[in-house]
Amino acid sequence: MGKAVTRRKTDVLIIGSGVAGLTLAIKLAKKRPHLKITIVTKNNIDDSNTKFAQGGIATVWDLDKDNFEKHIADTMDAGDELNDLEIVQMVIKEGPKRVKELIEWGARFDKKDNGKLELGKEGGHSENRVLHYKDITGWEVERTLIEMVKSLKNIEVLENFFALELITQHHLGRIISKVTPDIKAFGVYVLNKNSLGIETILSKTTVVATGGAGQLYTITTNPEGSTGDGIAMVYRAKGRIANMEFVQFHPTALYTKIEESPNFLVSEAVRGHGGILRTEDGEDFMLRYDKRGSLAPRDIVARAIDNEMKIRGVNNVFLDVKHIEKEDFIKHFPNIYKKCIREGVDPMKDMIPVAPACHYFCGGIVIDSKGKTSIKNLYAAGEATYSGLHGANRLASNSLLEGLVFAEKICKSISSEIDSIDINEDIPNWNITSTSDPKEMVLITQSLKEIRDVMGSYVGIVRNNIRLKRAINRILLYYKETEELYKSSVISEQLCELRNLNTIAYLVTRSSLNRHESRGLNYNTDYPEKLPYNEITLI
Fold first, then answer.
1. Are strands 352-361 and 247-254 parallel, antiparallel or unpaired?
2. Is the dihedral of CA 249, 250, 252, 255 positive or negative?
3. For 346-378, how does the pLDDT look when each residue is reduced to its tens digit (9 = 90+)?
4. What secondary structure letter does DSSP report for 285?
5. Are 403 and 382 contacting, i.e. CB atoms less than 8 angstroms apart?
6. What distance, in Å, lies between the first and last C-alpha atoms of the chain?
7. Residue 307: how many CB atoms within 10 A of its CB?
8. Which residues 6+ apart lie within 8 Å of 484 measured at CB?
9. In this structure, are strands 352-361 and 317-320 parallel, antiparallel, or unpaired?
10. pLDDT of 1
11. CATH numbers and ranges of domains, the chain
C-alpha cells in the first residue's frame, strides 16, 4: 500500500456532507472568506442521510395557528421529557430564521395555489408546521447546499476519504482517559479510497457531522454508509457519549417479500395527510394504544405495530390511503406512489404493507449549546450527537432543523476562537504495522451479519435484561475477533466499518443495560415503569 506520507493542513476540517456539515461550511466560508475549509466525505458529497429525508423540516411558520410554545411542548412530549429544555427552546425559536436562510439560498418548498408555503402535519405535532418538497425534501435541501458549497472558493471537498481516527495527544505518546481534562483534537487520519493510502489532515478545528449508525440493523431505512464512524471515532478518542440506547425505529418502512437495503421509507407525512394504520382485517388498531391514533409519536406507534405483529404472527401491518384522492396523493408523494406500483401495490386500491425499521439515533457525541464536545477544538453536529433536543425519542422532522441551527452556533463559536489556535506540526504520520490482506473477506461479512442479527434479536424495539446480557456477551466476542483482524490486516473501508458498528453495538447495548426504566425508545419489560427523575446515560 506504500508509505503514508501525504499531509494536508486546513483551518477547519468538517467530516461529513449532510445538512449540518454543508451548512456550517457555507456559513464559515461566507463569514470568514480567508479561512480554508475542508469537507471530508467517505463517498460522494451527496451521499448522506440528509438526502433520504422524505418528510420535511418542522418549524413554526403560520403564526395565526401555531407558536413556539406548542412546538416546544410537542418536542418535549415526544422526547418523554428527557430533553434539555434550554436546547429545545433554542432550536425551536431559531428555527424560522434558519429555514428562511435556506430558502434564500435557493431551497424550494411546496406552495399552495395562493403562493403560501404548504405546511404538513406528522406524528406528535399539534399543528401543521412541516415544510416539504414533495416526498424528497432531504434531496432538495442537499441539492441547495451542494450548489452553494461549489460556488465558494475557500471550501475544498475531499470525496472518497474515510476518516479513521481522531488525532489527539494519544498519538504523541501520552496516555489519556475520559477523565483527562485537556484532551485536544489536532485533525484526523483518513483512508484515501482512491489511492488506498492513509493521509494525515491537520486542522485548527475539527467538526464531526457524520450522521448515525442505522446499518447496525438488518432492517433499516439508512444508506450503506450509515455506520456510526464519527461516534465510534470520538468514543475511541475518550470523548463523552450519551443516550445510545435510544434508537428510533420508523414505524412505516415498506414491507417487501424480497429483502432490500435500505428499506424504502413510507414517510410519516403520509399519515399526516390522512393515512391510517390498520390490521389486515381493517381495524384501526392504533386507537387501542393512543388517543392520537396513527399520529402518535414514533416510539408509541413502532411498539404498537411490533406488538400487533407478534400477537398475530405476521410480518407487517398496513397503511390505508385508499380514501385519499389519487391526484392529491400523487402530487404530494410521487416517489412513494411509484415505488408501491413497482412492488405490485396500488395505493389507491390496496393497503400498503409496512413494518418498523431502524431509522434514527437520538444519542451520540455529547455537545453543548455551541456544538462543543468534551474534547478541545472538536465540535459535532447532527445525528452523530446528543444535544438534548430529542430526549428519549425524536419528534418527526426535527432532525434537519437541528442541523441548521447548530451549524449557526458552531459557526459563531469557531469564528470567535479559531484565530487563537495553531496547527500542531508535531503529529506523526500513520504507523503502518499491518501488511497483509484479510485471508478471507467472509471474516468481515459474516461478523457484520452476526452483529446485525444479535442487535435485531436482542436489542430491538422491545428489550429485556436476559436478551441484553446475551447480546453484550456476543458483542464482546466479536470485538475481540475484530480487533485481532484490525491489528493484523491492511486497513480497508469494510474492516473499519465493521469495527465502528461493533463499537456502536456495544454502546447501544451497554447504555440500554444501564437504564433501569422504560422511557421513549428504550422499552425494557423488566423495568416497565418510567423513573421520576431525568438522567442521561453517559459512557
1. antiparallel
2. negative
3. 999 999 999 999 999 999 999 999 999 999 999
4. G
5. yes
6. 36
7. 15
8. none
9. antiparallel
10. 38
11. 7-246+362-420 (3.50.50.60), 264-357 (3.90.700.10), 442-524 (1.20.58.100)
State how far the alpha carbon of 26 is from the alpha carbons of 21, 131, 372, 417, in Å: 9, 22, 19, 18
For residue 369, CA distances in Å to 31, 178, 363 come to 20, 21, 15
Q: How far apart are CA 150 and CA 385, in angstroms?
A: 26
Q: What is the DSSP string of 476-513?
A: HHHHHHHHHHHHHB---HHHHHHHHHHHHHHHHHHHHH
Closest CA to 373 of 240, 529, 492, 511: 240
Residue closest to 117 by CA, chosen among 105, 103, 127: 103
- Listed as ranges, residues in the chain with pLDDT below 50 are 1-4
DSSP state of 214: G
Which of the following is catalytic: 98, 271, 298, 515?
A: 298
Q: Buried b / exposed e across 63-90, counting CB within 10 Å, b at 16+?
A: eeebebebbbebbbbbbbebbbeebbbb
User: What CA–CA distance (Å, rounded) separates 295 from 307?
Assistant: 17
* Distances, alpha carbon 252 to alpha carbons 51, 157, 463, in Å: 18, 35, 20
Active site residue 298: yes
DSSP-derived pairing of the beta strands 198-208 and 7-15: parallel
* pLDDT recorded at residue 405: 98
pLDDT of residue 4: 46
In this structure, is the dihedral angle defined by the CA atoms of residues 113, 351, 222 and 381, taken in order, positive or negative? Answer: positive
Q: List Cβ neighbours of 307 (8 Å cut-off, separation of 6 or more).
A: 462
Q: What was the pLDDT predicted at 426?
A: 93
| Sign of the dihedral through C-alpha 62, 63, 66, 72 | positive
Return the residue matching grid coordinates 422491545.
Answer: 462
pLDDT, residue 55, reads 81
- CA–CA dist 459, 455 (Å, integer): 5
Dihedral class, residue 315 (left if φ above 0, else alpha if ψ from -120 to 50, else beta) = alpha
DSSP-based three-state secondary structure for 478 = helix
Three-class DSSP category at 67: coil
